[in-house]
Amino acid sequence: MSRPFHHVVLVRRSILRFPFIGFIVLAVVSQMASTVQAAESELTNDEKVAAILSELNSFESLWATYSITSGPLEVNGKVVRPGGEISNYEWAMQGNKRRELNIGRDHSTFCDCDFIYGYIQYDEHPHQLSFIRVADSDREMGGFSPRLLIGSSLHVAAGSLAELISRDPGRISAEKVNGVECVKFHFDAVRPLLGKNDFQIDVWFDPNHDFLPARILARISPNATSPAAYIAKFKSDLEITEFQRVMDHRRGEDRWFPKSCVITQASDYKKQWVFNDVRLNDTLEDSLFVPDIPDGTYVYFRTREEYAEIVIKAAEETLAEVVQRAEDAPRKPIPRDPKLEPVQIPDLNAIDETTAGTSSMFTALLLANVVALILGVGYFIWRRYQNNVNAR
């Protein structure tokens, strides 16, 4: 037997006698390979930001149908809505244009770069179209929408995730969501769409699913100026529960997109979203973003303080012509119902001049009454003393 062959036989016999040695060798080799692969795949923060921005900016158009199931709603520990209601929607976005259709309820909302349109079919008014300039609107169309899932809307603040990251990447760290180590961004003092209270926003991006947001959490910032309880408890917590593969028509290949998510708001009120059909980066028909305006449509156009009304008399009118005619129509001031006026929330951190003046006046009157009482008692005691002296 030759010496090299003898060594091979000895090794084979050693492995057969001690099989765990083979497992140890395989484990060591596997660990070394994983370490090398991790070192090669480890991205710097700048590379992570670049990858995330590339994905967020890749959404040019989206059409989707989805359902929303509401959970039970509790107020002060009492269930005021049992939950289980299901609403079905069709939603589309292309450039600055958006459309949201509440299926089965004859209500749809449209938006372009200039106006937000609300289209409703009533029994008493077969067709009603109301619209307002985007600049005069208090918030973006739709609140929660699929735009939030792909980062093109922040819901509580103006702009998009890509714009927010480009302005200020915030604090970047690593944290797991559903067992996946995600890239976490933390943003302080994000200016809101409404009110004066800043928001804190945390976003977890999932590297296993094209760096899409896996969770988005928005809360009132600790430096909020209003201590009202319902504001302090505000939160918007969106978490993706399942992803799916959909066709990206621009890339010509499948990519990841959310299949379902859960949105948790104050008092743990939850809504589950489930996406059914999705068309991603496909060329959408222009007719999707134009409301139907047949003869007899009642049109209501308003600004912040005024409104105008017209009735469509010719179906040949285009949307642009309808808008122009409504803007040229005589304006009326919007009536104010005192019962519907917003409640002013007092700022407990500061007292205005009126409150301060009232408080000072009350204090002065109180002191004056105390002084008058002391003088009156003193005068009574002095008179009794004088009467006693005269009686002697």
Task: Please tell me about this protein's structure.
The chain has 392 residues and is of the alpha+beta class. The protein is built from eight helices and 18 strands. It has a 16-stranded mixed sheet, sandwiched between helices. A two-stranded antiparallel sheet has the order 2-3. Helix 3 (45-56) runs antiparallel to helix 5 (161-167).
Topology of this protein?
Blueprint: H1 3-17, H2 20-41, H3 45-56, E1 61-70, E2 73-75, E3 78-81, E4 86-94, E5 97-103, E6 107-111, E7 115-120, E8 128-133, H4 146-149, H5 161-167, E9 171-177, E10 180-190, E11 199-206, E12 212-220, H6 229-232, E13 235-248, E14 253-265, E15 269-280, E16 298-302, E17 306-311, H7 319-328, E18 332-333, H8 353-391
Parallel strand pairs: 8-16
Antiparallel strand pairs: 1-4, 1-15, 2-3, 4-5, 5-6, 6-7, 7-8, 9-10, 10-11, 11-12, 12-13, 13-14, 14-15, 16-17, 17-18
Helix pairs in contact: 3-5
Characteristics:
392 residues; alpha+beta; 16-stranded mixed sheet; two-stranded antiparallel sheet; 8 helices; 29% helix; extended; disordered N terminus
Write a compact overview of the structure shown.
By secondary structure, the protein is α+β, with helices and mostly antiparallel strands.
